[in-house]
Amino acid sequence: MSDKLALDVQNLSVSFPMRGRGADGRRRALLAVDNVNFSIARGKTLGIVGESGSGKTTAAMALARLVPKLAGNITIDGIDFGTLDNEALRQARQRIQIIFQDPYSSLNPRLRAGEIVREPLVYAGETSRAEQDRIIDELFEAVGLRPEQKALFPHQFSGGQRQRIGIARALSTRPSLIICDEPVSALDVAVQAQILNLLKSLQGQFGLTYLFISHDLGVVQHMCDDIAVMYMGQFMEYADRKSFFAAPRHPYSQALLDAVPTIDIGAQPAGGKLVDGEIPDLTLPQTGCRFASRCPHARDVCNGGVPQLQDWPGSTGHRLACHLTGTFATS
Amino acid sequence: MTNSPSTAPLLDVRNLSVQFTTRGGTVTVLDDISFTLERGERISFVGESGCGKSMTALALMGLLPAMGRVSGGQVLFKGEDLTTASPARLRRLRGNEISMIFQEPMTSLNPVFTIGQQISEVLRLHRGVDNAEARDRSVELLQAVRIPDAAARVDDYPHQLSGGQRQRVMIAIALACEPEILIADEPTTALDVTVQAEIFALLRDLGAKLDTAIILITHDMGAVAQMSERMLVMYAGRRVEEGQVANVIKAPAHPYTRGLIACVPHITSDVGALVDTLPEIDGIVPPITRFGRDECLFAPRCAKAADECWSAKPQQSDIAGHSSHSVSCWHPFGTEGSR
Fold it and tell me: B261 — contact with chain A (CB < 8 Å)?
């Protein structure tokens, strides 16, 4: 079982220290990611969706060891990635790479495209210069760039081409896991399709595993095998694609889907289902469902303890964190 | 106000062309744009970045960048040609009869004034009301755009508000003088989808209440379908297709329109019906130095391109059986919804 998993994350929490002390005299800290669990089988894609500030990028950065975690186990390719140190960590970092949202600020403007793709290989330190050249040529072809473009600087490329350079760089160390953090959000609509198609074909070609972070549910539906919906640091719903889009169960997931404007002319205008409530303060311990203040179905029971992810009755693997599971109608 | 006949549209843009003077010479960034807008009507401009959507809006408002100038055509607002209006006249118009909201609510508000002061400024300038009245009216406007506890929030600075609230304040400023036209340039691109839905609902409600015509600039076909009755598809500074939103989305005639609709993954509850590979529009928008040539500027990206596409600019033609649905293409798709 576990050797089929490219990534397994258990009980991951991330906390950011804040200035000042709370009412209890303890240092204030904001719990940005609160005890999330997920795993991705090799060659599959998990999508994390949620509004800005929900903690999706923080969770990904923590599992990549780019921000410190408060707690949790991170296993990549069966290696206990979360506890590695120094040289062992540096070596293991090859296994996990990131494609960033902004293709403008994520490329060093003073390096030529070929050198940008070479950089991770140099840090990994396992390849000769000639081997690196061969890998760079191969990757440029794989992402649809011409060989002579290796000598150009980032500003000489369009946004879509820059994202192709970013993708080639992420592929250079042959990682088992690639974190795609909003990889097409900054691109023009027509170019988005080009990059999404490229990511899919590379996944087949190189057997890649993706952790795909996005706020765009259409893109997530197209790209992902499993979907996790995150709200204020917690997973609210976690299901496979088919089950999720056929019947999203959590009121928050329903509100998110409902808010997406559809090209269906007969459809009702989107939105308006959320309650305009105060959002909870994540520097304090949570005592109830953190979505209750905005939930149209909320009742007293919702403030009695933090709901944990559990299977929807009668299903396996379609899980949600909601006190009201099964007690309100799903549209 | 003017002596135009009552049958004239609110806004009548005729053959509008805009040129930029650059180091490399003169380029045509808007090429023969025509459209009309009726009172209370909602229209969308659609296309990729760099196709002239925002430039059209800026030309209407007399806000072209210094290197740009209107090189031809007219912008008739209630019969008055705005392309020849004096700067003073345009200043009286902007924010009063024609307003605009922008993509980035963080940068369009002044960080050192309270939101109440920024709403009041418009009212004092255009309506000549005194400070006390302007403040009262600001609170009412904040209530109208559904800012909770408006009487207290009127003294907040922009940094104290969330992104969605800032865009609401922008809308309050834009609607303060009950304009006849509101131009919304990608008003929700920087916002979460739940907030976007609320902003759209607000624009629809207030637009209907004030009988304000809305020009929405967007690249999101979903937003077009939800917000507008008519749409105008722009490519490389030209109008390539125009029509009722329902007709255009059901049977897009221009290959570009068709590509824009198909290349976006639309959500469906039936995952089995999903395609594995999205249809692509190859390539990117040409650089503005190519704009204005006597050829179809979409031809390099078009699967249907043939000799004539490269040798002459396609003329606009009406689509049979569909009133006010027109396309500029040598080889448009039929209206039968053929795939």
Answer: yes
Residues B247 and B154 in one domain: no
CA distances from A261 to A24, A266, B188 (A): 45, 12, 12
The domain in which residue B233 lies consists of 11-97+180-328
Residue B74 pairs with which residues in a beta bridge?
B14
Q: Write out pLDDT tens, residues A65-113.
A: 999 999 999 999 999 999 999 999 999 999 999 999 988 899 999 999 9
Residue A30 host element (H or E):
strand A27-41
Domain containing B69 — which CATH number? 3.40.50.300
- pLDDT tens sequence across A141-197: 999 999 999 999 999 999 999 999 999 999 999 999 999 999 999 898 889 999 999
Phi, then psi, of A235 in degrees rounded to 5: -75, 125
Note whether B35 and B143 are same-domain residues.
Answer: no
Residues B184 and B63 in one domain: yes
Instruction: List the beta bridge partners of residue A30.
Output: A16
In angstroms, what is the C-alpha Rg of chain B? 21
| Cross-chain CB nearest to A269 (options B201, B220, B276) | B201
The DSSP call for residue A156 is G
> Considering chain A, what is the average pLDDT of its residues?
91
Pairing of strands A96-99, A177-181: parallel
Q: Note whether A259 contacts B48, CB cutoff 8 Å.
A: no
In this structure, the answer to whether residues B119 and B22 fall within a common structural domain is no
Give CA–CA dist B107/B209, Å, rounded: 28
B270/A189 Cβ within 8 A? no
Same domain, B152 and B45: no
Task: Report, at the CATH architecture level, how domain A2-224 is classified.
Answer: 3-Layer(aba) Sandwich (3.40)
pTM of the model: 0.90
Closest-CA distance, A84 to chain B, in angstroms, reads 36
Instruction: Tell me the residues of A at the B interface, defined by beta carbons under 8 Å apart.
Output: 51-52, 158, 160, 188-194, 196-197, 200-201, 215-219, 221-222, 241-242, 245-247, 255-265, 267, 269-272, 274, 276
Q: What is the distance between the alpha carbons of residues A187 and B224, in angstroms, rounded to a whole number?
A: 19
Q: Which residues of chain B register pLDDT less than 50?
A: 1-4, 336-339
